[in-house]
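WARN  no MSA supplied for this record, continuing single-sequence
INFO  ligand: FE2/S2 (inorganic) cluster
INFO  echoing inputs
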Amino acid sequence: MPKVTILPGGWVVEASRGQTVMEAAMAHGLYWPTTCWGHGICTSCVCTTDGRGLQPMGPSERRALAAEFGEGAVKSRGLRLACQARVEGDVVVCKPGVRPLQPPLE
Ligand code: FES
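INFO  complex generated
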């Protein structure tokens, strides 16, 4: 199974091919910033990546990102919506704010 590495926290989760980055993280008990819960609207889930291991960006993802950040920034900063970016192989993304849903018991 492909692995998704999430920086800066250093989380590594397995993903099914075709699963979104955010789905894979949440399936492993991680919180991912969102306000639209994966509908590709809010852009709160935006992450940076070099794009390796992800399926190409679709038109609705590109429109949402360009409207929020500008077309140039989408390319130069390697932005993707984690709720829309589908895993094809091993991938590394950066998204501050990802954390376990439950704090560790003490
Ligand atoms: S969770 Fe809202 S755009 Fe991805």
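The chain is about 25% helix and 25% strand.
INFO  checksum written, moving to next record
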